[in-house]
Amino acid sequence: MPYDLVDPRGKLNRPDPSAPTPRLGTIPERIEIGFLINEISRQTGPDFTRYSFVIEDVLRERHPHVDVVRDAKPVLSRPADQALLDKYRDCRGVVTGLAK
Amino acid sequence: MTVSMPTELDDLREWTELSYALRLTDGLPVAPPLREVVDVLVAGSGRAADDLVAVIPPRDGRATVEVVAANAAMAGALPEHMPVIITALEAMSAPEHNLRGLLLTTHPCWPLVIVSGGEVQRLGMATAEQVFSGGGNRANVAIGRAVKLVLWNVGGTFPGEPVKEVFGHPGRFAYCIAESADSPWEPFHRSRGLDAPSGVTVFSCDAPMTVTMWGCDDEPRNRLAQAADAMSVRGSNNTHTMGEMLVVFSPSEARHLAACGYGRAEVQQTLFEQARRRIGAIRPRGPLRPDNSPEHWYSWWPAWVDQSDDDTLVPVVAKPEDIHVMVAGADSIPWIVVCHSWGHLGGFAITRPIRHPA
């Protein structure tokens, strides 16, 4: 007689992250892109703020009408609060960097 | 991608290898989550099987009562342990605990489950010898282990990808302690404002650092200074960012302090005054802080910390109540344990009442 088992992992509360987000077919003439800095660098470690300007320059070469929203979380390990997230409400994509 | 698990097994001898193949354990053997055992554990919770207890990051898995029970079965828990396990998981899901951050951080902290009040006696939990490693007690270990397995299986807290914790934490196998009934002070949960017979507190902290009373006389301030020194080590997140700390007194040391007129509040106040370091020692002058100008100040320290002066003594917490004081350990020689934490980033203590089945 077989033994019944219960899967201890539980279902996901969101779509499977291994499925890639569909790519945009075409990019609109005007598009808003966000950069969310994990924390303002305090003279330690890599600085995503500076790197985000490099990415912005590349973006602007390809899409001159890109609008950029850039802000930073006060503390790297805490989630962004709603007021901060609201600034990115109209963005088609948000680029964030790990650590600093 | 989650590999599916068989819903039944013909031969239980296959379970151990299957559990490792599916990565359902962190390395220690686990009992099979048999349907009949899981159903008994669900009944012990007094809640419906599909009730959602928490969504566990980073995988964002749904820890329903049944899923929690499956992990509890793997941990060897009993039905009467379920209310404590569920309360702990609910508590650590409070936003201020920042469970997602602390499960993924490079910092070696882990949620410690603290049981206090009548529930300790009801479950026959260990409070004395080896309390920080389970005390040889089924309830302590099964509760801590069940919480761990939920965070592992439902949350997917695997080392390397996605968890970047640099060194790890011995308490990750099972981290649950219970407060001694021999405390001269009110139960820990009551000191945190919970008016209930029992409580569960979760506090994410580093591995315990023990402090003996070597070289100390009977004067409470001198004895507490010994602990304060361990609390304010250089390089600790608390020393640099404040946050919260846990200090555990053995029953004999707590009684000594109480006999000298020290209640919990006096202990917290004295530790707050003594656990400090000079800014010049915490942040020596160098390329990262060439001078005391404001652009080199820590923005997270309160304004009352005078960062313009290298001789300012900075406390390890912002206020005395952020030092959590409780009593546990063997009732033999006086001893103190200090647990540092993730600092101001999260893992803050959350206390909840235990909901028993009606």
Sum up the structure in keywords.
heterodimer, A: 100 residues, alpha/beta, 3-stranded parallel β-sheet, 2 helices, 4 strands, 20% strand, B: 358 residues, alpha+beta, 4-stranded mixed β-sheet, 13 helices, globular
Task: Note the gap between the termini of chain A.
Answer: 56 Å
Q: Specify Rg of chain A, calculated over alpha carbons.
A: 19 Å
Number of strands of chain A: 4
Task: List low-pLDDT spans of chain A.
Answer: none
- Specify the number of helices of chain A: 2
Task: Describe this entry's structure for a reader.
The complex is a heterodimer of chains A (100) and B (358). Chain A is α/β, with parallel strands linked by helices. Chain A has a domain at 31-96. Chain A has helices spanning 48-62, 82-86; strands at 3-4, 31-37, 66-72, 93-96. Chain A has a three-stranded parallel beta sheet with strand order 3-2-4, with helices on one face. The longest helix of chain A is centred in the middle third of the chain and has 15 residues, at 48-62. Chain B is of the alpha+beta class and 358 residues long. The model of chain B has no long low-confidence stretch (mean pLDDT 96). The longest helix of chain B is centred in the middle third of the chain and has 16 residues, at 138-153. In chain B, helix 3 (65-75) packs across helix 7 (138-153) and helix 9 crosses helix 12. In chain B, the strands form four sheets. Chain B has a four-stranded mixed beta sheet with strand order 5-4-6-13. Chain B has one domain. In chain B, 31% of the residues lie in helices and 16% in strands. Chain B contains 13 helices and 13 strands. The interface between A and B is large, with 24 and 50 residues.
